[in-house]
Amino acid sequence: MDKPTEDIQTFLGPQTSVDGKLAVHGMVRIDGRFEGEIASRGCMMTVGETAFINADISVRTVTVMGEIRGNVHATERIHLCPTARVFGDLCAPELLIEVGVILDGHCTIKPEGVGINDVKKAKS
Q1: Is the per-residue pLDDT at 50 higher than 90?
Q2: pLDDT at 4
Q3: To 10 degrees, the CA torsion angle through 57, 102, 90, 120?
Q4: How many Å apart are CA 104 and CA 36, to the nearest integer?
Q5: Looking at residue 124, what is its pLDDT?
Q6: How would you classify the pairing of strands 52-64 and 102-104?
Q7: Which residues contact 3 (CB under 8 A, 6 or more apart)?
Q8: pLDDT digits over 66-123, tens only?
Q9: What is the C-alpha separation between 25 and 45, in angstroms, rounded?
Q10: Would you say 38 and 53 are in contact if contact means Cβ atoms under 8 Å apart?
Q11: pLDDT at 45
C-alpha cells in the first residue's frame, strides 16, 4: 500500500454539505457538514472547528476540532483538540484528549495486537 503524502487530497469547505459515504486515501479535511459514513483505513482526517459530522468514522488517524455525532474508530490515533465536541464512542490504540473537550461516549484504548482476552487477563 502506498504511503499517503502530507498534502490534503480532499477538502470539504465550511459552506459544503454532503450526505453519503466518503472513502478516501491520504489526507482529508472537513470544515463543512457531512452526514453518512466515512471509511478509509489509510486516511488521515482533520475535522475543522466549523465542521459538523453526523457519521460513524473509521480512519487511520483523526484530529478533531469540530463536532462529531457518531462512533470514531482509528487504527493509529484520535486527537481531540480543546474545541472538539464528540457524542459517540471512541476506539484507538492512542487517544489524546486536551482540556476543554466535550465527550459523551465510551473510550476504548487498545494497542494493536492486544486482544480483548489479554485485557481481561490483565484485570484478574
Answers
A1: yes
A2: 41
A3: -170
A4: 20
A5: 54
A6: unpaired
A7: none
A8: 999 999 999 999 999 999 999 999 999 999 999 999 999 999 998 876 655 655 565 5
A9: 10
A10: yes
A11: 93
pLDDT over 90 at 22, yes or no: no
Let me know if 116 is exposed, middle or buried by CB neighbors in 10 A (0-12, 13-18, 19+).
exposed
Please report where in the chains the cell 465542521 appears, as a residue. 51
C-alpha cell at 120: 481481561
Listed range (3-7, 39-43, 85-89, 110-114) with the worst mean pLDDT: 3-7
C-alpha cell at 12: 470539504
**DSSP class of residue 3?**
P
**DSSP, residue by residue, 71-88:** -EEEEEEEEE-TT-EEES
72, amino acid identity: V
C-alpha cell, 76: 493509529
Which three cell numbers, joined as nine digits, stand for 20?
453519503
Q: What is the DSSP letter of 93?
A: S
Largest CA distance in the chain: 52
